[in-house]
């Protein structure tokens, strides 16, 4: 388990990096990481660009608030992703522009596997779950099912949630998902060349 003080600094640093590059605006988005006996999480109504490492929410292993400010209302979503992906050590939720735009499409065919890094970081397909009011407990089952398919999930009319074995890997995968959505929009209406199934399987390796 990584030292808690280091994780606190990393949450603030990665949050500021995401915010400064437009992956999150205002008080949108949140981050959580596993610590011994529970989780650290960004507080409710906090900006990823202005996080104080010493003012994060602390929750126990049952997601009960233990210390610090109140946690983000998106606790249910994070809890579902950790349950779906037991190997996950960190989760990043963003309202990044292109993924959110993709999540609002009436006909969602899924973000195509255009690059090897999309496949290596997120798998063959990134599922989209139906819209739920932010913080609603009703989303738990949908995210549990989708999270077992991929470490990244698109939330209809909302954004994305991405899990990783480290905070850095979760951030990298969330960024990859946003750039992949941007590529899909740039290529819309053009004869795109996604990776073939054989190329995808080569990247995924033995199943």
Overview of the molecule:
The chain is 39% helix and 16% strand. With 207 residues, the protein is an alpha+beta fold. The chain has an 8-stranded mixed beta sheet with strand order 4-3-2-1-5-8-7-6, with helices on both faces. The model has no long low-confidence stretch (mean pLDDT 95).
Question: Can I get a quick summary?
Answer:
By secondary structure, this protein is of the alpha+beta class.
The secondary-structure class comes to alpha+beta
Order of helices and strands: HEEEEHEHHEHEEHH
- Helix share of residues? 25-40%
Question: Overall 3D geometry?
Answer: globular
The whole-angstrom Rg is 16 Å
Mean pLDDT: 95
Strand order of the largest sheet: 4-3-2-1-5-8-7-6
What assembly state would you assign to the polypeptide chains in this entry? single chain
- For the termini, the CA-CA separation is 28 Å
Largest sheet: 8 strands, mixed
Task: Spell out the blueprint of helices and strands.
Layout: H1 4-20, E1 30-35, E2 38-41, E3 57-60, E4 65-67, H2 75-84, E5 90-94, H3 97-103, H4 116-122, E6 128-129, H5 140-149, E7 152-155, E8 159-164, H6 167-187, H7 197-204
Parallel strand pairs: 6-7
Antiparallel strand pairs: 1-2, 1-5, 2-3, 3-4, 5-8, 7-8
């Amino acid at each position: 388990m990584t030292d808690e003080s280091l994780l606190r600094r990393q949450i603030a640093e990665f949050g500021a990096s995401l915010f400064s590059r437009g992956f999150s605006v205002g008080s949108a988005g949140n981050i959580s990481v596993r610590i011994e006996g529970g989780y650290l999480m960004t507080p409710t109504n906090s900006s990823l660009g202005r996080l104080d490492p010493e003012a994060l929410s602390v929750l126990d292993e049952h997601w009960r608030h233990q210390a610090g400010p109140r946690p983000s209302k998106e606790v249910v979503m994070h809890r579902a992703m950790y349950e779906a992906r037991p190997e996950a050590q960190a989760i990043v939720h963003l309202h990044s522009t292109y993924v959110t735009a993709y999540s609002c499409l009436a006909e969602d065919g899924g973000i195509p596997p255009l690059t090897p890094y999309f496949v290596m970081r997120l798998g063959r397909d990134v599922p989209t779950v139906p819209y739920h009011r932010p913080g609603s407990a009703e989303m738990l089952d949908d995210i549990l099912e989708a999270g077992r398919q991929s470490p990244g999930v698109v939330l209809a009319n909302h954004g994305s949630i991405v899990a990783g074995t480290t905070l850095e890997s979760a951030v990298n995968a969330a960024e990859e998902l946003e750039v992949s959505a941007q590529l899909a929009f740039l290529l819309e209406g053009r004869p795109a060349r996604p990776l073939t199934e054989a190329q995808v399987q080569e990247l995924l390796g033995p199943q």
